[in-house]
Specification:
The chain is α+β, with helices and mostly antiparallel strands and 485 residues long. Helix 3 runs antiparallel to helix 4 and helix 7 runs antiparallel to helix 8. About 12% of the residues have low confidence. The chain has 20 helices and nine strands.
């Protein structure tokens, strides 16, 4: 064996994730609002990028109900070529000619016409938290010497308005007698909202009953035995409280008017409305699918500014930086254009396969998998998964996440086509909603669902019922008994 140095030529294959490909894959998984923030960062970083608003709409051609293949459903556009993002995009070339590269992403419906925009001053500051609301009242309600105890108690009150820390622990921590802490807590419990500072549900409702001047011995015994009320043992409660049916029903109605979580009226995270990424509407020609471009700017490569910078004096480093900025801007425009076309392509296939849902509702939702859509549009399953993440579709039936349309299959009882698990959940929910006084057991629900053509086991019914937050037949029977009381 020779130990002398030598040169060998070897061939090998490897898959390299270029930064551009990584960015394109990242863009697929982002929602429209996240893309908007991403574009803002890129515009701030790259001086050759401009972002403006436009009234153009990105849409797919209407989907015919009897389309022959997936390729016929892909939107038409101004760009040529439509290679999927799961191919080797590193080999793509960019045209650096004098024409302005642009990605037309605009608002649907526009905002022109002299419409008045909302006053920014009317938006106001975030709502005050429960602690802020209580501290604003404590200064006038609590003596100055005990104000530090009140502040500590308020800090220990949770979002629902309950004090879950034992008073003895607070007394030891502050180095004050427990009786003094109890006295300050009694004052804190008089603050708005009524019921705040309670240590359990019974005390919370008792504070509200006292405020309404309904806290008598009968109500006190009822509040001390809320576990019996939860179990629906009304006969035992009537004996303990010494009341008849009419008085018991009146007391229960009174309790229903109280707030078990008074602290939830204040603060908390503001409700974030979901902005749809796609619009689906039925037309005479088929189904129209449009990207919601209202939240996205139009991204342009400012070639005039690039020409000005190129014509000026610059060293080697500046020239290299300018070239990198131009290449980055061109790639971003192309990646955003490819992103919107991929989203439209996937959404079009979803609408094609779930047309019965859009026409007739959730009962006609078909089982569908990522692999099935990926095969139909000749893309990788991971690409479809990224496209359907964090994106919502708005149609005449409401707002749905794209992931909603991918459900497992339940075999039909008559041996026909399998049905969607979501359709089974919808049928199960409808049966329970219509059961009335005759509460249906899980076994009965299985029989009814099998009569509708769903071959489903009892354990599956129980799993679906619990997943929808619906109690068992015993719990539902108790709840109905309390409603009739």
């Amino acid at each position: 064996m020779s130990l002398a140095p030598r040169l060998d030529l070897r061939q090998s294959q490897s898959l390299v994730m270029t930064p551009q490909l990584q960015q394109a894959i990242k863009l697929l998984a982002l929602s429209n609002l996240e893309i908007e923030a991403f574009i803002a960062e890129e515009v701030e970083r790259n001086p050759l990028l401009d972002a403006t608003q436009t009234d153009e709409v990105v849409r797919a051609e209407p989907v015919e109900r009897e389309a022959a293949g997936a390729d016929e459903l892909v939107m038409g556009g101004t760009a040529t070529g439509e290679a999927a993002l799961d191919v080797d995009v590193a080999a793509e070339r960019f045209d650096d000619g004098p024409t302005e590269a642009a990605l037309s992403i605009g608002s649907i419906g526009g905002g022109a016409g002299g419409e008045e925009l909302p006053d920014l001053d009317s938006l106001g500051a975030p709502p005050a938290s429960l602690a802020d609301h209580l501290l604003a009242q404590a200064g006038a309600a609590v003596d100055a010497a005990d104000l530090f105890i009140a502040h500590h108690l308020i800090d220990q009150i949770d979002e629902a308005g309950y004090l879950l820390v034992p008073l003895l622990d607070i007394a030891l921590r502050l180095g004050v007698p427990k009786a003094r802490v109890e006295a300050v807590l009694a004052t804190v419990q008089t603050l708005d909202p009524t019921g705040v500072g309670a240590r359990d549900l019974s005390e919370c409702l008792a504070l509200q009953a006292k405020e309404a001047d309904r806290y008598d011995p009968c109500m006190a015994r009822l509040l001390d035995n809320l576990d019996l009320l939860a179990r629906g043992d009304l006969a035992r409660l009537k004996r303990m409280c010494g009341v008849d049916d009419e008085d018991m029903a009146d007391m229960i109605r009174e309790l229903r008017g109280y707030d078990p979580k008074p602290g939830c009226r204040y603060g908390g995270e503001p409700v974030q409305s979901v902005v749809p990424d796609l619009f689906v509407a039925r037309t005479k020609a088929g189904w129209a699918i449009e990207l919601n471009a209202a939240t996205l700017p139009r991204v342009l490569v400012n070639r005039r500014y690039h020409a000005e910078l190129s014509s000026g004096p610059q060293d080697k480093a500046a020239k290299a930086w300018l070239g990198d900025m131009l290449a980055s801007a061109n790639w971003l425009v192309k990646a955003l254009d490819q992103r919107q076309r991929t989203i439209i392509r996937v959404a079009t296939e979803i609408v094609k396969q779930q047309e019965a849902f859009f026409l007739h509702g959730v009962a006609h939702l078909r089982p569908m998998t990522l692999a099935r859509v990926a095969d139909a549009i000749e893309m990788h399953e991971s690409t479809v998964s990224r496209v359907t993440s964090n994106k919502y579709l708005s149609c005449a039936r409401g707002l749905y996440e794209l992931k909603y349309f991918f459900t497992s299959a339940i075999q039909a009882a008559d041996g026909g086509d399998a049905v969607s698990a979501e359709a089974v959940r919808s049928a199960l929910k409808a049966l329970i909603a219509a059961e009335g006084d005759q509460v249906l057991s899980d076994d009965t629900l299985v029989e009814r669902l099998q009569g509708k053509g769903f071959d489903i086991a009892r354990r599956t019914v129980a799993k679906y019922r619990e997943g929808m937050g619906i109690g068992s037949s015993v719990q539902r029977r108790r709840a109905r008994a309390l409603e009739r009381a």
